[in-house]
C-alpha cells in the first residue's frame, strides 16, 4: 500500500515548528543519501531521535512543493500540476516508509510517543492538501480539460484518479464540513493507533506458565522445547512458558491434552482487548464506528461500508453481503458435519449421545480426526519444511515462473539481528530491488504476517527508476537448540502468500505513483493468494520439501496424505473467515450514530453471529476487540477482500494448471504483465480479463474449499 495513498501529505499545519538545524541535518541520516546499496535504509545509523525532525522537515519541503504548484501562474497542465503533485513528498515518504514499518515490528514506548506526536501533524498535513482550494482548482482544471490536452491513456487515468481522490477527501465540501472532516480524521488516526497499541500490550502481557511436566502431555517436543527456551529467556528456567504468538498458541490448542489449560489459552487469545482493563478496545470501537459513519454522511453515503466500497471491485454493500451469505451457508453446513464427526470421536461412537465440543476443543479434536481419517499428523511433515527449504522453494518457483533470481546480501544494514536481505534480479539481469525477511516473533512485533515497503519501486521527478525495497514480516516457529526452524503447513502457505505480495511490488512498473501497482482493495490479495496454490502442488513440494537432517525429499506417501487432507476442516476454516467478514460489514452498515453510541460491542457481536446461524463451537476468526485488520489495519468494510480475491486466484491458477504446465511460460508472462506489472493501468476486472479472457468462475474456489 502506497504511503502517499494512506495520507495525502501537506505541511501547512506545522508552520512555526522547528525543522532541522545545521547540526541535525548533518547527523540525521534521513537528510542525505544513505550511502548504502540501492539507497537502502541505514538502520545502523537511524535512531529514534531522527524521526521527528525528519517528519517536520519532510512536511516543510512538501508544503513548499505544493505552494510551487499553487503559485504557478501558467495555465494548469498535466506536467506542472498532476506530475508535480504525483512526485511530491520524497523526504516525507522516505522517513514514513521507515518509521511506520518499524512501529509494527520494533515497537517500544519511545516509538509510541513519537507516533502520538506525529500522527495529528501528519493527519492535518494530509487534510491541508486534500482541502487546499487552489490546488484542487488546478487539478479540476486539468480534469475538466483533459480531453483537450493530448494526454495518453495512463495520463488520463492518473488525472481521473487524483480528481476522485480529492473529492473523496473533502476538497468539494463546504468549509464547515471540511472542518468537521479534519476533526474526524485526526481522531480516527489516534484511535487506530491506540487500538493497535492496546492489542500489542495484550499480546505480550499474557503468558501461560507451566511448572508441572504432566501438563505438557500431548504436546510435540518442538513446542515443549520452545516453551522451555521462552521460560529461560523470562528468567524461569526449569518451567515452560507459552505465549499468544501463533507458533506457541496453535500447537498448544491442537495437541495439549489438558483441556482446562487449552481453555485458558483460547480465552486469553480471543478475549484480547475485551478484559475491561486499561487495554480494553470496546470504547475505541464504538467511537471509531460513529466517526466513520459521520465521515460517510459528509459525502452523502448512508453508511461507511458504501463509502469504502464505492472505489472497490464490489462497488456496494449489498453485493458484498450476498457474496458472503452465499458462501457462509454452505460453509456453516459443512462445519456442522465436521462437528458431528468430532463429537463421535470424542465419545468413541456415533451411536451414543454425542459429547459437546467446546470452542477451545475444536483444534484438538480436529487434529485427532485428521489423524484417524488420513493417518496424517502434521508433525510428520515439519522435518521437511525447514524455513530455509520453504524460502528456497518459493524462490525456485518464482524463477521458473518469471525468471527472477534472489541473491543473499550481507552488506545491507538491518534493523534486527536475524533479518535477511536478498537482491532480486529480473530475467534480464536488471535489479528489481531488495527483499527483507523478518521471520520470528518478539514482544516488540505485532502478531500476524504482512508485506510492506520501505520504498516502492517508482520513477522520481527526473524519471529515474528507484528499485523497490520490500519487507516481509512473519511470526514463525523459531529454531530450538540444534533444530532449525521447522514450519507447519499454515506457516508454509503464509510465507508463500506474503512472498506473492512482494512479487506484485517488484513487478509493478509505471511512471505515475498514483497508478503504478495500485489496485482496488478487493484485488490486492490476488497476487499473494495465488502463490499459495503452487506451494501445495506435489510437483512443487518435491522441489523444496527436503528433510533437514538427511536431505531426503518428502516421500510421496506423505505428499499424498497432505494432498488428501487438503479439504479437511474447511468448514471451520471458511466459516470463521466469512463470519469475521460479515461482522466487519455489519458494523460498517450501521446508519444511526445515536444507536452506535448505545451499542454493547460484545452483545452486538453475539447478535450478529446468532442472526447468521454461526454454530456455537466457532467464533469469528477475529473478535471485535482484536480485529486489527478492521480497526487499525486499513481493512474496514474490506475483510471480505480475502475471499473475493480467492475466487480470482483459484480461477487463475486453475486456468494455468489446466494448460498442463504449472509453469506455463506464456500464461506466467501474461499474468505478470496484466495482473502484476500493469495491474494499475485499468480497473481490476479489466486487467484480470486481459489475462483470463473472461470473468472468473467461482467453481474452482468452491471445489478448493470443499463446498462443492
Give the termini separation.
34 Å
Number of helix segments?
29
- Largest sheet features: 5 strands, mixed
CATH architecture of the largest domain: Orthogonal Bundle
Per DSSP E runs of 2 or more residues, the count of β-strands stands at 9
In CATH, what is the class of the largest domain? Mainly Alpha
Total domain count: 4
Question: What is the fold-level CATH name, i.e. the topology of the largest domain?
Answer: Neurolysin, domain 3
How are the strands ordered across the major sheet? 3-4-5-9-6
Proportion of strand residues? 5-15%
* Helix percent band: 40-55%
Shape by Cα distribution: globular
Work out the radius of gyration: 26 Å
* Helix/strand structural class: mainly alpha
Average pLDDT metric: 94
Poorly predicted regions:
1-22
Amino acid at each position: 500500500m502506497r504511503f502517499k495513498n494512506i495520507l495525502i501529505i501537506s505541511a501547512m499545519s506545522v508552520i512555526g515548528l522547528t525543522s532541522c538545524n545545521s547540526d541535525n541535518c548533518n547527523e540525521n541520516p534521513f537528510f542525505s543519501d544513505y550511502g548504502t546499496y540501492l539507497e537502502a535504509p541505514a538502520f545502523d545509523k537511524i535512531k529514534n531521535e531522527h524521526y521527528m525532525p525528519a517528519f517536520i522537515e519532510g512536511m516543510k519541503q512538501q508544503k513548499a512543493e505544493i505552494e510551487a504548484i499553487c503559485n504557478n501562474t501558467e495555465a494548469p497542465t498535466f506536467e506542472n500540476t498532476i506530475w508535480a503533485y504525483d512526485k511530491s513528498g520524497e523526504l516525507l515518504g522516505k522517513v514514513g516508509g521507515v518509521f511506520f514499518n518499524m512501529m509494527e515490528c520494533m515497537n517500544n514506548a519511545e516509538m509510541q510517543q513519537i507516533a502520538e506526536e506525529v500522527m495529528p501533524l501528519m493527519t492535518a498535513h494530509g487534510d491541508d492538501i486534500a482541502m487546499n482550494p487552489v490546488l484542487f482548482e488546478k487539478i479540476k482544471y486539468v480534469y475538466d480539460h483533459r480531453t483537450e490536452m493530448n494526454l495518453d491513456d495512463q495520463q488520463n487515468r492518473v488525472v481521473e484518479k487524483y480528481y476522485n481522490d480529492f473529492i473523496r477527501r473533502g476538497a468539494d465540501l463546504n468549509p464547515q464540513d471540511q472542518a468537521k472532516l479534519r476533526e474526524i480524521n485526526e481522531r480516527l488516526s489516534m484511535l487506530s493507533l491506540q487500538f493497535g497499541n492496546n492489542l500489542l500490550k495484550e499480546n505480550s502481557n499474557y503468558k501461560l506458565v507451566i511448572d508441572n511436566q504432566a501438563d505438557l502431555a500431548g504436546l510435540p517436543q518442538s513446542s515443549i522445547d520452545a516453551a522451555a527456551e521462552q521460560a529461560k529467556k523470562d528468567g524461569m528456567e526449569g518451567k515452560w512458558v507459552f505465549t499468544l504468538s501463533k507458533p506457541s498458541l496453535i500447537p498448544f490448542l491442537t495437541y495439549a491434552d489438558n483441556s482446562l489449560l487449552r481453555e485458558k489459552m483460547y480465552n486469553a487469545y480471543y478475549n484480547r482487548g475485551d478484559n475491561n482493563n486499561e487495554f480494553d478496545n470496546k470504547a475505541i470501537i464504538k467511537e471509531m464506528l460513529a466517526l466513520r459513519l459521520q465521515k460517510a454522511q459528509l459525502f452523502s453515503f448512508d453508511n461507511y461500508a458504501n463509502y469504502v466500497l464505492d472505489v472497490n471491485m464490489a462497488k456496494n454493500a449489498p453485493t458484498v453481503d450476498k457474496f458472503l451469505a452465499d458462501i457462509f451457508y454452505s460453509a456453516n453446513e459443512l462445519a456442522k458435519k465436521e462437528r458431528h464427526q468430532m463429537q463421535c470421536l470424542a465419545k468413541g461412537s456415533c451411536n451414543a449421545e454425542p459429547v459437546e465440543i467446546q470452542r477451545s476443543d475444536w483444534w484438538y479434536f480436529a487434529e485427532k480426526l485428521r489423524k484417524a481419517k488420513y493417518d496424517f499428523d502434521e508433525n510428520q511433515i515439519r522435518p521437511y519444511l525447514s524455513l530455509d527449504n520453504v524460502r528456497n522453494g518459493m524462490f525456485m518457483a518464482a524463477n521458473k515462473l518469471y525468471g527472477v533470481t534472489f541473491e543473499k546480501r550481507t552488506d545491507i544494514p538491518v534493523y534486527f539481528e536475524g533479518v535477511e536481505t536478498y537482491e532480486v534480479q529480473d530475467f534480464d539481469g536488471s535489479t528489481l530491488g531488495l527483499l527483507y525477511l523478518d521471520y520470528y516473533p518478539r514482544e516488540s512485533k505485532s502478531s500476524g504476517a504482512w508485506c510492506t515497503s520501505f520504498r516502492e519501486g517508482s520513477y522520481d521527478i527526473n524519471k529515474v527508476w528507484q528499485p523497490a525495497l520490500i519487507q516481509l514480516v512473519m511470526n514463525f516457529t523459531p529454531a530450538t537448540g540444534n533444530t532449525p526452524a521447522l514450519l507447519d503447513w499454515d506457516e508454509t502457505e503464509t510465507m508463500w502468500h506474503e512472498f506473492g505480495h512482494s512479487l506484485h511490488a517488484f513487478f509493478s512498473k509505471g511512471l505515475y505513483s498514483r497508478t503504478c501497482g495500485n489496485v482496488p482493495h478487493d484485488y490486492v490479495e490476488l497476487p499473494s493468494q495465488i502463490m499459495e496454490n503452487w506451494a501445495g502442488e506435489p510437483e512443487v513440494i518435491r522441489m523444496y520439501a527436503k528433510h533437514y537432517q538427511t536431505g531426503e525429499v518428502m516421500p510421496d506417501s506423505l505428499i499424498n496424505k497432505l494432498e488428501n487432507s487438503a479439504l479437511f476442516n474447511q468448514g471451520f476454516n471458511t466459516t470463521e473467515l466469512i463470519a469475521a467478514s460479515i461482522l466487519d460489514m455489519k458494523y460498517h452498515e450501521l446508519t444511526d450514530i445515536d444507536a452506535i453510541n448505545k451499542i454493547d460491542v460484545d452483545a452486538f457481536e453475539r447478535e450478529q453471529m446468532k442472526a447468521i446461524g454461526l454454530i456455537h463451537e466457532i467464533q469469528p476468526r477475529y473478535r471485535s476487540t482484536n480485529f486489527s485488520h478492521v480497526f487499525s489495519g486499513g481493512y474496514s468494510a474490506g475483510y471480505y477482500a480475502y475471499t473475493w480475491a480467492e475466487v480470482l486466484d483459484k480461477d487463475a491458477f486453475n486456468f494455468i494448471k489446466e494448460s498442463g504446465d504449472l509453469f506455463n511460460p506464456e500464461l506466467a508472462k501474461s499474468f505478470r504483465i496484466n495482473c502484476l506489472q500493469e495491474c494499475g493501468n485499468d480497473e481490476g476486472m479489466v486487467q484480470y480479463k486481459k489475462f483470463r479472457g473472461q470473468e472468473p468462475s467461482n467453481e474452482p474456489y468452491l471445489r478448493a474449499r470443499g463446498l462443492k
